[in-house]
C-alpha cells in the first residue's frame, strides 16, 4: 500500500466499526472522519459508546469489524505506544496524571516515544510559554494542583509527543468556569498551530462553539452529523443537549 496520501483525505477515519464487549454490542456501523487541521466533537449521553470510541482510536479496544485509518494507514493491531509514535496523543478523562510525580516529570513522560533530547528541551520551553502557570509549578506534585491546572498539565503532556492529532475525553469536566474558558482557548490555540483535535465533551454548547464538525452518538449509532454550527441550530440537538428551544 502506498503511504502517499491526499491532503483532502481525512487525517483520521473510522469506517463501519462494530464493537462488542462480550455479547453486548457497543457500536453499530460507526463511521467518523476527522479532517486535517479541524476540531471534531463527538456528543452523546452516558453509555452511548463515546469512551469506547476513544479507546478504539488509541488501540485499547479492538473492534470486531470495520477499519481505523490514520494518515491513510490502518492502526488496527498496533499497540498504544506504536499509535502514539504515528502521531496520536491523548488527553484522557479525569486527566490521569502521575500524581506523585512533579509537573515537569509528568510533562517529560509525554515525550517517552522520543529520543531527541535537545528538541524535547526546546519543546518544553515552548509549552511553558503557552502554559505559563505550569512554569511556576514545575517542581510541585501534580496531584496537588487544582483541576484546571491538572488539565493544563495533561494537555501539555500530550503536546510533548509532537502529535498531529490529539484525542480529548471530556476536557472541561469538573472545571470552574474560569478554567473552562482557558482550556477552550488553549484547544483553539493548539488547533491553529496545526494539530487536529477529536474531542468527546458533555457540554454540547461549548463543544459546538469551537468545533468545525460534530457527530451525535446514541446507543452506539451515529444519528446526526455535520458542520458544528448546523448541529447547534438543529432542533433535535437543542432539545437533547442544549436545553430546548428556549435555551440561550
SSE string, helix = H, strand = E?
EEEHEEHEHHHHEHEHEEHH
Query: What name is given to the CATH topology of the largest domain?
Result: Rossmann fold
Note poorly predicted spans: 244-248
Task: Indicate the mean pLDDT.
Answer: 87
CATH architecture tag of the largest domain: 3-Layer(aba) Sandwich
How many discrete structural domains? 2
Percent of sequence in beta strands? 15-25%
Highest CATH level, the class of the largest domain: Alpha Beta
Tell me the structural class: alpha/beta
Shape: globular
What order do the strands of the largest sheet run in, or round the barrel if closed? 6-7-8-3-9-10
Major beta sheet, specifics? 6 strands, mixed
How much helix, percentage-wise, in residues? 25-40%
Number of strands: 10
| Gyration radius, in Å | 18 Å
| Termini separation | 50 Å
Count of DSSP-assigned helices: 10
Q: Give the name of the CATH superfamily of the largest domain.
A: P-loop containing nucleotide triphosphate hydrolases
What does the model show?
With 248 residues, this protein is an alpha/beta fold. The chain has two domains: 1-87 and 163-248, P-loop containing nucleotide triphosphate hydrolases (Rossmann fold); 98-161, no CATH class. 35% of the residues lie in helices and 25% in strands. The protein is built from ten helices and ten strands. The protein has helices at 50-57, 80-86, 103-109, 117-130, 132-135, 147-159, 177-192, 204-210, 228-232, 235-241; strands at residues 12-21, 24-34, 39-43, 65-70, 73-74, 88-91, 165-169, 196-200, 213-218, 221-227. The chain has a six-stranded mixed sheet with strand order 6-7-8-3-9-10, sandwiched between helices. Strands 2-1-4-5 form a four-stranded antiparallel sheet, with helices on one face. Strand 9 (213-218) and strand 10 (221-227) form a beta hairpin. The longest helix has 16 residues, at 177-192. The N and C termini lie far apart (50 Å).
Amino acid at each position: 500500500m502506498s503511504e502517499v496520501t491526499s491532503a483532502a483525505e481525512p487525517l483520521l477515519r473510522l469506517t463501519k466499526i462494530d464493537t462488542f464487549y462480550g455479547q453486548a454490542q457497543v457500536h453499530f456501523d460507526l463511521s467518523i472522519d476527522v479532517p486535517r487541521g479541524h476540531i471534531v466533537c463527538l456528543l452523546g449521553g452516558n453509555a452511548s459508546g463515546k469512551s469506547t470510541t476513544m479507546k478504539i482510536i488509541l488501540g485499547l479496544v479492538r473492534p470486531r469489524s470495520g477499519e481505523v485509518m490514520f494518515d491513510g494507514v490502518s492502526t488496527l493491531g498496533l499497540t498504544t505506544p506504536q499509535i502514539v509514535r504515528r502521531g496520536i496523543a491523548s488527553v484522557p478523562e479525569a486527566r490521569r496524571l502521575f500524581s506523585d510525580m512533579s509537573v515537569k516529570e509528568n510533562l517529560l513522560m509525554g515525550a517517552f516515544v522520543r529520543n531527541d533530547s535537545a528538541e524535547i528541551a526546546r519543546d518544553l520551553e515552548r509549552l511553558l510559554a503557552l502554559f505559563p502557570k505550569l512554569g511556576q509549578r514545575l517542581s510541585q506534585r501534580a496531584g496537588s494542583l487544582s483541576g484546571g491546572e491538572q488539565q493544563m498539565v495533561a494537555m501539555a503532556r500530550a503536546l510533548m509527543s509532537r502529535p498531529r492529532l490529539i484525542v480529548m475525553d471530556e476536557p472541561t469536566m469538573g472545571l470552574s468556569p474560569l478554567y473552562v474558558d482557558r482550556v477552550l482557548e488553549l484547544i483553539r490555540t493548539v488547533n491553529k498551530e496545526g494539530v487536529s483535535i477529536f474531542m468527546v465533551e458533555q457540554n454540547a454548547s461549548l463543544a459546538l462553539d469551537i468545533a468545525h464538525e460534530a457527530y451525535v452518538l446514541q446507543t452506539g449509532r451515529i444519528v446526526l452529523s455535520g458542520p458544528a454550527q448546523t448541529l447547534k441550530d438543529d432542533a433535535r440537538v437543542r432539545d437533547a443537549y442544549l436545553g430546548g428551544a428556549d435555551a440561550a
